[in-house]
Specification:
Structural class: mainly alpha
Distance between the termini: 31 Å
Low-confidence stretches: 160-177, 305-314
Number of strands: 0
Order of helices and strands: HHHHHHHHHHHHHHH
Shape: globular
Radius of gyration: 20 Å
Strand content: under 5%
Mean pLDDT: 78
């Protein structure tokens, strides 16, 4: 692993520090002082059912894979994964679910892996759909500016990934070809869940994100940001998409830069955008991380079984 790979996760932190030097601290402090606690408290209350919906979604997907896992365990493990994702880049903390499934019920690695990866892919698809819907309601001029920005970011990210070697298949996999050799097994398992029942999973996903957007809307209202629900849906979707990148811990830096860039196109100040971004961070990531830590203390993981990269392992 070269230096670019070692310091990859610091990029988000560096972006965040640069932003802090660019904003008016006094102006940002005044926005915090004037926060409407009633609206913000309501936004926090809305976060709680989101935790349950997220756990229900994973629980239902496990049933699609014929994995019988108690809902309470699914709830605790789902929140624990949020805690680990809070301190790890690109939400890779979700992978801890595989170990829980292996240790608790000796679930096959392939199905545990699918229970993490497939929902993430569906998340990305849903967020892209919401992002595209958001694009349709803004002017052509602003649409061009935003799309140009997204393209520039994408090129920048791909360049970093290429330089770090993360796009190099041989470098990433090394001499271990087990994962690649068993990819056909993974695909066959995926084909088995491609049925009408998957539609309900999409519905749960849509409900989850609508609740997230509602909570974020009230966060915006709490600081008198005065943006529409569609605007919230638009900016939060793009911010969440970028939070999947491996150089951002809990979306730090990437989310802030995204909010500043998008909201500036509709006349909002950098200070308003950064406060909105950080309140979203507090509501979902910090609060979720604390709940996740409690969940971990209730149900800690014991590494009693070895988990290998063999997708056919039982």
């Amino acid at each position: 692993m070269d230096k670019a790979s070692k310091y990859f996760r610091l990029i988000g932190i560096i972006i965040f520090i640069v932003i802090l030097f660019k904003i008016d601290i006094k102006g940002a402090s005044q926005i915090i002082k004037d926060i409407n606690l009633e609206y913000f408290s309501f936004a926090l209350v809305l976060v709680i059912p989101i935790f349950f919906i997220s756990a229900l979604r994973w629980f239902y997907f496990l049933r699609l894979l014929n994995i019988n896992y108690p809902f309470l365990s699914a709830l605790l493990v789902n929140q624990t994964s949020q805690f680990i994702s809070f301190v790890s880049p690109g939400k890779i903390g979700e992978l801890i679910k595989i170990w829980y499934l292996k240790n608790d019920i000796d679930a096959p690695f392939a199905k545990g892996f699918m229970s993490v990866i497939i929902p993430r892919l569906i998340d990305a698809i849903v967020l892209i759909i919401f992002f595209i819907l958001g694009l349709t309601i803004i002017s052509l001029h602003k649409r061009i500016i935003i799309i140009s920005g997204v393209v520039v970011i994408s090129v920048f990210v791909l360049s970093l990934l290429k330089k770090s070697g993360l796009l190099n298949r041989q470098k990433v996999l090394g001499e271990n070809k087990t994962f690649v050799n068993n990819i056909e097994y993974f695909i066959n398992e995926f084909h088995q869940i491609l049925n009408i029942k998957l539609i309900f999973f999409f519905i749960i996903t849509l409900l989850q994100y609508l609740c997230i957007f509602c909570s974020c809307y009230y966060i915006a209202e709490s600081i008198s940001l005065y943006i529409t629900f569609t605007n919230v849906m638009f900016v939060v979707s793009l911010g969440n998409i970028l939070s999947f990148l491996p150089f951002s811990i809990a979306g730090l830096g990437t989310r802030d830069a995204t909010y500043i860039y998008i909201l500036s196109q509709i006349g909002k100040s950098n200070e308003e955008a950064i406060i909105f971004s950080n309140l979203v961070f507090v509501s979902f990531y910090l609060f979720g991380g604390i709940v996740g830590l409690v969940s971990y203390l209730i149900k800690p993981i014991a590494f009693n079984n070895s988990v290998t990269l063999n997708l056919k392992s039982k």
